[in-house]
Amino acid sequence: MPVTLVKSFEEPSDDTVEKEDRDKKTMGKTLSKWMFKNANSVADMSEDRVQQVPGSLGLTLFNVMGLVKSGHLFYRNRRDRNKSNVYKVSIYQPRIVLCSFDGIRQMYENTAVRKEPSFGMFVFNQEILGNHTPLIFENDEIHHQRRHIFIELSKKIFCNKNFINELSQSISSELDHVIDTMTSQPSSDFEDALSGAVGNVVTRCIVGKTIDNELLKKWMDNCLIKKFKKARAEGPLVYEKIRQSVKEGPIFREFAAGLVKKNGLLEEDICNEIIFALIFNAYKALHGFVVSALVHLSNLSEDKQIKLQNDASNFHQSTDKTTELNSATDVENYTLEIFRLFPPASFVFRRVTENFVLPLKSGNYQVNKDDLLCGNVYLSQRDPDIFDNPDKLDPDRFQRQPHLKDYLTCFGAPFLQDSVPNIHKCGGQKLALTFAKVFVMHLLTLRIEYDGQPSWSGKKIKRIIGSDKPVRVKAIRK
């Protein structure tokens, strides 16, 4: 396989390691002081210390044109122009953009902000999900109660001692099918083939059976709509077919019955939440990760590739794959680095419910009732004040500085914090990372010749995949 190698990352000297250890201790103390403090407490705040949010709204039309042209660079350029990680701009409606870790933490924890039933300007069409509002758009007790679904589901799946072995076999089988498809039909859509593989793996593990990928894709096409558009008439019919498939799954039947009895949740709510999670995790988050992780393996230096290959070799040869997966630190660090560079959701949105002062490391800012907050996860995970060479793929980053894991805002809470119902941490984080790491183990067995080397400029804001253009292959084999 033709492999494009970049200049090897320099190994740190003893002096550098000693300095990084000191830096780690210092940053760790700083982290404990401001990361876990009560998000609503603003100590010793006098009127003259409160700042107005910098920036100008500008004209929506020109801003949208700039966003379409420059993608993520539009937000970065605005940040640099304002010399601030918080600024205001108008894109369809006025918003306050937060590009820093502490800003997004405020969005997760401050009780003066609320989720809305939308992804920014995109509104989730509840009719496509039986008029059910998904967990990620809920607040307060409803949110806390339904988080039990994914916490308990994760526990249920990991109770199966053969889960990792079965997951590995499922991924291997699906990738074999992708290889057969691309070999027999070279003009096939490679990303679409991988999407089908990811969907089959996830539904088989979570529901206990595969669900027609065409149904899932149709549902995806109908579930997110602009306010001025109507969902296609087939949407509710597609949803009903998916719902029946989920309910027929053996894992779901056993899991749902226990959760209804234990937590008093309705089976329909459980089914709806599972469907929503399956669609977005299979066809958005995990699929985006798998393609990104695959194409960027060829951008690693040879020594970094060898380290990952060693982890993969040990995993595939072991009969105790669970233990081997847990000890594969190089694969885990690579996985987290891909999630850092290409988060599954680049933005989070909240609506301010009352006037308050936003306490950030850079200062205290006045925000007002009805303001729309836009948390830029993509930029917060590339913050040069936290991450050295933030745009560089560095799979050893978290090995040198493990505490940086807690600065990944895509998981909703500190990486090492347990997932419990009353926080905003991703309830399926452990499960999602397990899927991701086992996929990497198998991606490392592939030999691919690309039809044009994939590259990422940051200009494609609608793609969560780390390649500007759809990935195409000339040849693929194990």
From TrEMBL:
Residues 1-24 are annotated as: Disordered. Gene3D superfamilies: Cytochrome P450. GO terms for biological process: sterol metabolic process. One of its GO terms (molecular function) is oxidoreductase activity, acting on paired donors, with incorporation or reduction of molecular oxygen. Pfam families: p450. Its cofactor is heme. It comes from the Eukaryota. The keyword Chloroplast does not apply. Keywords: Iron, Metal-binding, Oxidoreductase. PANTHER family: C-22 STEROL DESATURASE ERG5, CYTOCHROME P450 26. Belongs to the cytochrome P450 family. This is Cytochrome P450.
